[in-house]
Amino acid sequence: MKRILAAGLVLAGLTAPLAAQEVKELNFGIISTESSAGLAKSFEPMLKDLEKAVGVPVKAFFAQDYAGVIEGMRFKKVDLAWYGNKSAMEAVDRAGGEIFVQTTKPDGTKGYYSLIITNADNNAVNNLKDVVDCSKGLTFGNGDPNSTSGNLVPSYYVFALNKVDPNKCYKRVVVSNHEGNALAVANKQVDIATNNTESMDRLKDVRPAEAAKLKEVWRSPLIPSDPLVWRTDLPADMKAKIYTFFLTYGRLGSDEEVARQRAILAKTSDGWGTFVPSSNAQLYPIRQLELFKTRLKVEASDKLSADEKAKQLKEIDAKLAALDEQMKKVPSM
Questions:
Q1: pLDDT at position 22
Q2: What integer pLDDT is reported at residue 35 of this predicted model?
Q3: CB under 8 Å to 83, separation ≥6 — which residues?
Q4: CATH no. for residue 323?
């Protein structure tokens, strides 16, 4: 563990001194997968331990949607944050963010699945074919535009590949977070909605009656586990403290302390295990998926001239080829 930590600090450039203004407080951004009250209760114990480790107050930062946390990092109101992969990509590209660790499950697995769910009583929707049948007049709960599992993944695998535009296919489309969509389906306010296995696990824990009213009708390929992202301009000494905290949390210390920390992690979000090192390379598959989705959209467009379509497709293919070369040199985490 010590060798891994030391190597990670060197790779992250955290062992060299860096003159910077003193950090007096850290704001930890938390994406809005459910109510802020539920998330605050879930994250508070871990953030209290982080506060002790880094020596400055650590405050949770909430926003109405994922974009609010991304913008918070962009304007330096958020110092580090828990994101999904899609929102992490936006934070890296637009808000000066950098992935430094990745979450895992208590059993050590590093991934989860996007879902389409419906009410257990809904006999008209049982599989993907039913989901994309526009003659059914369904109502649809979509996820936050910056959500990986609630928006990006289903927008490609469910809709783009089947040449379906949700806004044209469904009688009504609403947008909410994972918890909001699950409750809307359970209460029969919408017929189908996006979600993911992590949020379903948490719903079974906090609202088992509503969870029992849901059934899964589609599941995606495996999605990489969520990353933690910090601002690249944080002082190196603070980054070193943060990095050390997350990589040793639930790993080092007395048996009692390790057990206490792992119990805290198991109740954080949908239930986490220990953290593992990561980097922006984790986003390669997500970038690839975004480009594939865009390519299908351009290819199917009837608003572009043949020349313009060919030009855009050539540009997208060049980006995909460059990304493929990059992935060969630096494998995704």
A1: 84
A2: 86
A3: 29, 31, 66, 69, 70, 91, 226, 227, 228, 229
A4: 1.20.58.90
